[in-house]
Amino acid sequence: MTADxxxxxxxxxxxxxxxxxxxxxxHADEVLTIKPTLNACGEHEPPRxxxxxxxxxxxxxxxxHPYRDQGI
Length: 72
What we know:
Blueprint: E1 8-14, E2 20-26, E3 32-34, E4 62-64, E5 69-71
């Protein structure tokens, strides 16, 4: 997964059961809304979308508050 903003860092964690978790962190001093690019992870197909933790609907973009992270 990548984000086209130099103030955003992101990574994917893959559990041994195959579930994937994304961590996105903002280093900006303002609110950012980004649309991450989803890539294949190892031998897994690219994900169809992002679902925020605790929710059931996929989203296209993520709003990040200043200097905070978002788990998806």
